[in-house]
Amino acid sequence: MKDLITLNVFRYQPEKSKEPTYQEYEIPYHKDWVILDALNYIKDQIDGSLTYRWSCRMGVCGSCGMMVNGKPVLTCATFLESYTPGPIRIEPLENFPVIRDLVIDMSDFLEKLKKVKPWIIRKDVGSEDREYLQTPSQLADYKQYSMCINCMLCYAACPVYGLEPEFIGPAALALAQRYNMDSRDEGKNQRMKALSHDTGIWQCTFVGDCSAVCPKNVDPAGAIQRYKVEGASNWWKTLLLPYASKD
Amino acid sequence: MSIVQCDVLIIGAGGAGLRAAIAVSEANPQLKIGIVSKVYPMRSHTVSAEGGAAAVIKEDDSLEHHAYDTISGGDWLSDQDAVELFVNQAPKEMIRLEHWGCPWSREQNGTVAVRPFGGMKMKRTWFAADKTGFHLLHTLFQTTLKHENLLRFDEWFVTRLLVEDNRCQGAIALEIATGKMTAIKAKSTIICTGGAGKVFPFTTNAAIKTGDGMAVAYRAGIPLKDMEFVQYHPTGLPFTGILITEAARAEGGYLLNKDEYRYLQDYDLGKPSSKPVLRSMELGPRDRLSQAFVKEQEKGRTYEGEYGHFVHLDIRHLGEKIINSKLPFVRELCIKYENLDPVKEKIPVRPVVHYMMGGIDTNIEAETVLPGLYAAGECACVSINGANRLGSNSLTELLVFGAIAGRNAANYATQQNGFSKGLEAQYKNEANRIEQNFLKKKEGKVKIADIRKAMNNTLEAGAGIYRTETSLKKSQEDIQELKERFKYIKMDDSSITFNTELIAALELSCMLDVAEAVIQSGLHRRESRGSHQRTDFPNRDDEKFLTHSLAYQKEDGPPDIKFKPVTITKWAPGERIYGR
Ligand SMILES: Cc1cc2nc3c(=O)[nH]c(=O)nc-3n(C[C@H](O)[C@H](O)[C@H](O)COP(=O)(O)OP(=O)(O)OC[C@H]3O[C@@H](n4cnc5c(N)ncnc54)[C@H](O)[C@@H]3O)c2cc1C
Ligand code: SF4
Ligand code: FES
What we know:
- The complex is a heterodimer.
- By secondary structure, chain A is α+β, with helices and mostly antiparallel strands.
- Chain A has helices spanning 35-46, 107-115, 136-143, 153-157, 159-163, 170-180, 188-195, 200-203, 209-213, 220-240, and strands at residues 4-11, 21-28, 65-68, 71-74, 88-91, 98-100, 103-104.
- Chain A has two domains: 4-104, Ubiquitin-like (UB roll), CATH 3.10.20.30; 107-240, Alpha-helical ferredoxin (Fumarate Reductase Iron-sulfur Protein, Chain B, domain 2), CATH 1.10.1060.10.
- In chain A, the strands form two sheets. Chain A has a five-stranded mixed beta sheet.
- In chain A, β3 and β4 (71-74) form a beta hairpin.
- In chain A, α6 (170-180) crosses α10 (220-240).
- The longest helix of chain A has 21 residues, at 220-240.
- Chain B has helices spanning 15-27, 63-73, 80-99, 132-144, 212-219, 247-250, 286-298, 319-326, 328-338, 393-415, 423-439, 448-462, 469-486, 500-524, 542-545; strands at 2-11, 33-37, 53-54, 114-115, 125-126, 150-154, 156-164, 167-175, 180-191, 224-225, 230-236, 254-256, 303-305, 308-314, 347-356, 359-361, 373-375, 380-381, 466-467, 533-534, 547-552, 560-565.
- The structure holds flavin-adenine dinucleotide (FAD), iron/sulfur cluster and FE2/S2 (inorganic) cluster.
- Residues 148-154, 170-171, 174, 213-214, 216, 218, 220 of chain A line the site of iron/sulfur cluster.
C-alpha cells in the first residue's frame, strides 16, 4: 500500500459562505512531489473546485506562492518530503485580501510597481545601431535586484506591510533600486521623489524577514537599507539645489 | 454582458504581446490599446526561456550566415523572405531591448556578450545568464508601464473572436475573478497567445500553454499552418519535463548513453572533441538530437527509470566557476527539482516537447487571411522556423514580428470607423454557451483530467518523434472520440468567482482542436522533414512537399488539409550537413 499524507487546506468560497474553513485531503505520498503536485492531484482527482494559481512549475513565473505551515513559500519549489509525516497546512499568502481559497488579490502591488517608475529614464535615446556600453561590474551592481519574480512572498512576510498597507513594500523598492543602480539610467531623483512620502519605509526596522523568504536572493531588505542611507541624503540635496539636480 | 471598446486589442501579454503593445503605442500614442492575458503579464511563459536570443552583432558574423543557419536548420521549409526580414530586423530589436534596460551579459569592454547555440555556425546568441526570457519579459512589462494609453485586462480569458462583415472586430473574454463575460470591441486584433506544448505529456511548457489562440482562430475559419512540426528538446528532466537549456551543451556539456559513450558520433553529427564545435555533435539541431535518442533507446543503450528512458547530460568538467557564472539556473533547477548537483553529478535527461513550429497562418506583415486580425509569436507561423526551429530564434521572433504586427494593426485601426451591428448576437450566444455547457452543466460524468491524460498519451504514442500512417490514424480516432466525450465532462465547480475548473475545461477544448490539426497535418505529409519523421516515408520529398500544410476546421471530424508553396529567394534546398 502507498503511503498517505494529509493536507489541511484553507477554503474560502465567497458564494457559499463569508467564513473561511479548512478542508482535509488525504493524498498519496511521493518523495519527488512538491506541494503543488499534491494540490494538482487534489484538483484532478478529488475536488475540482479547489482554487489556486500556478503555471511554470519551475520557480520562475512567481504564481504559486502560499503559506505552508505558516511560512510563505513557492509551492512548486517545496517538497512534501520536508513536511513528513504531516499534516501540512496550506493557506493563502498573508497580508493580502483573499479572492477565493488560495488565490489572493495582488492588484495593489501592480499599482505600487508603476509608482516607482521601473523603466530606464534618460535624456538622450542612444543610437539604434549600437548598445549602450555596460561592463560586467556595472551589471553586477544591480543584477541581484533585477532577479525579482514578483512572487509576493516578501509582502506576506513583511510586518510593516501588514500594518501599513500604504507601504510601497520590499519588492517594489528593490525594483526601484534595480533601475537606480543601472549605469544606463538617469531617473534616480524622479524615483526618490515618488518614494519620499512613503512613511512605511521609515518604519522598516531591517528585521529582514523579506530577504529571508525571498526565493531568488533579491535581498529587498538590503535595498531598503540602502535607500534609507544614501537615498535620503540625495533627496535633501535635490531640495537644496533644485537647479543642480539632474532628472 | 458588458462591452468595452478599444482601437487595438492584443490577446496575450508574453514577449510577443508586450512588444506589439509598445509598437502600437509608439506608432500612434492616440490609440487606445487593450491587452488581455489569462495570467498577469509577468507570469507568461516567455518568463521561463533560458538560453538566449539570436541576432547578428559581432564583426565576424553576417546576416547571410544567420539566414542560412535558420533555413538549413528548418530543413528548407522556412519562407525565405520572412527569414531575410527576420535576420535584418533582429539586431535592431535586440538593441532596442537593451536600451529599455534588459540586463544582457557583457564582455569586459562593455559590449554585449554572445554564446554559441545549436545549429548556429557563429556565436550570435545574446543572453542574460541563463534567464534570458525572464529578463526579456520583465524588461518589456516594466517598459509598458510608462505607456498611459495601455489598458490591461489581467487574468481575463478570451473564449472567441468577434467576426462580422469579414473583419475581426475584437474578442469575447471572461474576467476570471468575477466570471463576467465582456465583449471587447476593437478595430484590429493581434493574437499573441503562445504555444501548445501541453497537448503532449512530457513538455517543458507551462500549464498555460494550451493553444487557446490557435484554437479560437481555427474556429473562426483561419487555417493553422505546418502544425505537424512539433519540436522535441533533447534535454528535459524526466519527471517534470523541466528544461535544461541548450546553453549547457553550448558551454561544453556532453550527452552520454549508459555506456558513458558520446553516442551522437554514430548519427552523422561529427566527431567528439573536448571543446564544443559549432554545428556539430551536441551542438547539432534539436530534431536530429532527439531522433538519435530514440535510436539509442531502440538499441538498448539508454537507462530506464521510473519516468521512462533517459540518458545523461554531463557538465561536471566545466567546473563550478563556469557553471555558476554561465549556467546558474541549471544548477538551481537541478538542486531544487532533481535533488542533484550538476557540479558533482550527471544530469538525467530525455527529449520533451518544447515548441510548436506551426501556428496561425500569417504573411510577413503578420496579417492573417481575415482582415483586421494579426498574429505573432509562438502561436503564429510566418514562417521562419520551417520544419525545425533553431534554439534562440524564438525570443527574437517575438520581438521582430510582435513589433511588425503592432505597427500594422495600429495602421489598420486608424483606417476603420465604427463596428458592425450584428456583434450583439454573437456575445449573447457566447455567454449562453459558457453557461449551458459548463457552469450550469448537471449530468457530466467524465473527468477533465481523464480526457486530458488520454489526449496526452495518444499524441505521444501516435504523433511523437517518429510517426506512421497507422499511428497517426489511431491518434486521430482517439482525439475525435475524446472530443465526443468532452461533451459529457463533469464539473465540480459552478461558481463564478475565480473558477479555475472552468478555465481548465475551456483550455482542454482548445487543446483537442489543436491536437486534431497536428495529427491530420502529419497524416497528409507523406515525407520526413525536420521534426516530422515518418518511418513509412523516411526521406524528404521536395518534389511533392516543399509546401506548407494548412489545416481548416470542419463542422465535424478532422480538418481539411491544403498545401501552399514555400517561398524560396536564394537558398535552393540542399542537404543538411552537421559536423562534417
Ligand atoms: C522552458 C523554455 C525555454 C525556452 N528557451 C528559449 C530560449 O532560450 N530562446 C528562445 O529563443 N526561445 C526559447 N523558448 C521558446 C520561447 O520562450 C517561446 O516560444 C516564447 O516565449 C513564446 O512567447 P509568446 O509571447 O509567443 O507567448 P507566451 O509568453 O507563452 O505568452 C502567451 C500569452 O498569451 C496569454 N494567453 C494565452 N491564452 C489566452 C487566452 N485564452 N486568453 C487570454 N490570454 C491568453 C497568456 O496569458 C500569455 O500572456 C523556450 C521555451 C520554453 C518552454
Ligand atoms: S523580492 Fe523576492 S520575495 Fe519579494 S517578490 Fe521579489 S522574488 Fe518574491
Ligand atoms: S508555478 Fe511558477 S513559480 Fe511556482
